[in-house]
Amino acid sequence: MRKVVALFGSSRAAPGGEAYARAYAFGRTIGELGFDLATGGYGGVMEAASRGAREAGALVFGVTAPAVFPARDGPNPFVEPELPSPSLLSRIERLLDLGAAYVALPGGIGTLAEIVAAWNRAYVDRAAGRPVRPLAVHAEWRALLAPALEIGEADLALVRFIEDEMDLREFLESLR
């Protein structure tokens, strides 16, 4: 069975835009390196990454939340299978459970919640002596995630900042 990379990002990225193109390239890279993909299953970055991964031969899990987003028409056309969740929190938990690693692209509050959940899981796993699932976050998040309050350098070291497909490829090669 192939390892799954869970990818988080904006639902607002539009086809033809830079964010959409970057997500497509990231999804394609994930699939080309032999990983399957899990996303939130809807449009924007999730759709672009799903399309790229699917075109590269990956299975694409879409963890949707129909009760939370009743106006959405279902998952994007590149998702197979869809895994509906009853709430946002259970959706995030399902994505974390599916992923052997996590990748976060730029996004909004939902993406930030996913980053923090994955980061917190890594923190707890490290403290408990369990294997830590790696987290790569696009460099645009760096200023927001900088050490402050009670977040120290060792905690920040649980996050790897990446900028492009070359960085992503290097990050994923370490998982093989």
Describe the protein's architecture and organization.
A six-stranded parallel β-sheet has the order 3-2-1-4-5-6, with helices on both faces. The radius of gyration is 15 Å and the shape is globular. Helices cover 40% and strands 14% of the residues. The two termini are 13 Å apart. It has helices spanning 18-32, 45-55, 88-98, 109-128, 153-156, 165-173; strands spanning 4-8, 36-39, 60-62, 101-104, 135-138, 159-162. It contains six helices and six strands, in the order E-H-E-H-E-H-E-H-E-H-E-H. By secondary structure, it is of the alpha/beta class. The mean pLDDT is 96.
What descriptive keywords fit this protein?
6 strands, alpha/beta, 176 residues
Number of domains: 1
Mind telling me the CATH class? Alpha Beta
Question: Which whole number gives the mean pLDDT?
Answer: 96
Largest sheet: 6 strands, parallel
Instruction: Report the order of strands and helices.
Output: EHEHEHEHEHEH
Number of helical stretches of at least 4 residues: 6
Beta content: 5-15%
Helix content: 25-40%
Reported CATH architecture: 3-Layer(aba) Sandwich
From the N-terminal CA to the C-terminal CA, the straight-line distance is: 13 Å
Unreliable runs, pLDDT <50, ≥5 residues? none
How are the secondary structure elements laid out?
Elements: E1 4-8, H1 18-32, E2 36-39, H2 45-55, E3 60-62, H3 88-98, E4 101-104, H4 109-128, E5 135-138, H5 153-156, E6 159-162, H6 165-173
Parallel strand pairs: 1-2, 1-4, 2-3, 4-5, 5-6
Helix pairs in contact: 1-2, 1-6
